[in-house]
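Duplicate of #3305? Posting structure anyway:
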């Protein structure tokens, strides 16, 4: 019989890439969607998988919806990707961020414990939990957490709850501590997509400025399509554990800007970029760089897409979107 997987956050960036991977492996995929006045399936359509998913209703802030869902579907695997995932918004919406990202995970784990204790669980943890910790110039599974935003703090709670359900109830629960990963379907608020979309607008004469915040922040940027393979591999490993996933290379926001303008064939990026205080954060995470050797050794996972190829892929996709319009 086909394995079953429930993906929360199915309409976001990672959900569609993971759904595609699992469908290719023969899974039946359930995708959790919350109530929307005007839902958009654009990201799933982009990967051509919308019609192959069975959509189920629920909300991470509504415990009873998650209890019913797990009781009804009893999936082999749950990938919890749902989140208020934009760090910048988490200062203004700290309570909502906590309810979705922290309490929502507790509700889901409880539902698994009560109704489907053999279900394997993946939690979308994040390098934002490390915040300003980088005692060795990189972060790995032994680096202490020092989150810098309500988002990072909510994810630390979810991380420890995931570990605690493993230790207390012997559930198969894993944390993937993923560093930034991007793609042509990355949300438009995140800096990479904001840059590639802005570059495509400038190239097509639809904008003449790109407003950005801190250009010095450094991130370890990989491709989402590579990273969902690590999520899958964690749940296939013989024992549940927590893994850092990243490329081991980092670049500044300015490096990304330079590469993106160059990929679009626009000289003199400085002519277009405006530093705008509105996009600076009350507390910044200045420098993230993964050491993913545990995932590489134990899971056989490896990043495949270079920084240059990632930027090119995103710029080309945005140029194509504006040309099509
Ligand atoms: P994303 O594009 O923002 O997608 C998040 C999804 O969560 C959206 O589809 C959203 O649904 C859904 N969601 C939000 N609140 C919900 C609620 N109350 N109930 C049900 N669903 C809800 O995020 P992503 O980039 O794919 O990331 C996936 C996960 O990995 C997130 O948990 C994120 O925090 C984590 N993460 C991401 C990165 C990265 O670089 N991308 C790195 C580390 C960890 P709507 O479409 O209805 O808004
Ligand atoms: O693209 P960002 O908004 O991503 P951030 O904050 O690193 O968070 C992303 O990655 C995390 C993993 O580390 C995920 F957990 C999280 O869910 C999300 O996917 O910002 C990246 C950097 C920041 O330092 C920010 O200050 O870019 C800087 N930046 C500079 N100008 C900007 C801008 N960020 C945004 N969003 N918009 C700007 O105009």
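Output from current build:
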């Amino acid at each position: 019989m086909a394995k079953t997987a429930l993906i929360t956050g199915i309409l976001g960036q990672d959900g569609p890439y993971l759904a595609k991977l699992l469908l290719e492996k023969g899974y039946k995929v359930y995708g959790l969607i919350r109530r929307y006045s005007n839902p958009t399936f654009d990201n799933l359509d982009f990967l051509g998988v919308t019609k192959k998913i069975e959509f189920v209703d629920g909300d991470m802030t509504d415990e009873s919806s998650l209890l019913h869902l797990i009781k009804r579907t009893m999936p082999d695997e749950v990938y919890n990707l749902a989140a208020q995932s934009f760090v910048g918004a988490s200062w203004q919406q700290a309570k909502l961020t906590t309810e979705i990202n922290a309490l929502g995970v507790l509700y889901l784990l409880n539902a698994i414990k009560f109704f489907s204790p053999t279900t394997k669980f993946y939690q979308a943890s994040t390098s934002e939990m490390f915040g300003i910790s980088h005692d060795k110039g990189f972060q790995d599974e032994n680096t202490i957490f020092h989150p810098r935003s309500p988002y990072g703090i909510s994810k630390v709670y979810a991380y420890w709850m995931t570990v605690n359900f493993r230790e207390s109830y012997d559930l198969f629960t894993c944390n993937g501590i993923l560093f930034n990963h991007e793609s042509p379907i990355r949300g438009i608020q995140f800096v990479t997509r904001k840059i590639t979309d802005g570059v495509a607008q400038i190239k097509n004469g639809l904008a003449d400025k790109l407003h950005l915040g801190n250009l010095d922040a450094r991130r370890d940027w990989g491709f989402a399509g590579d990273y969902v393979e690590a999520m899958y591999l964690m749940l296939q490993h013989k024992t549940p554990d927590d893994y850092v996933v990243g490329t081991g290379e980092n670049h500044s926001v300015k490096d990304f800007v330079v590469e993106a303008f160059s990929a679009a064939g626009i000289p003199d990026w400085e002519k277009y970029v405006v530093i705008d205080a509105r996009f600076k954060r009350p507390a910044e995470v200045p420098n993230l760089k993964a050491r993913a050797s545990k995932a590489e050794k134990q899971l056989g996972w490896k990043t495949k897409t270079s920084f240059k190829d990632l930027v090119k892929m995103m710029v080309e996709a945005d140029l194509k979107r504006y040309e099509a319009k």
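Confirmed duplicate; merging threads. The domain at 187-219+249-288+305-318 is CATH 3.90.25.10 (UDP-galactose 4-epimerase; domain 1). Residues 19 and 29 are 7 Å apart (CA to CA).
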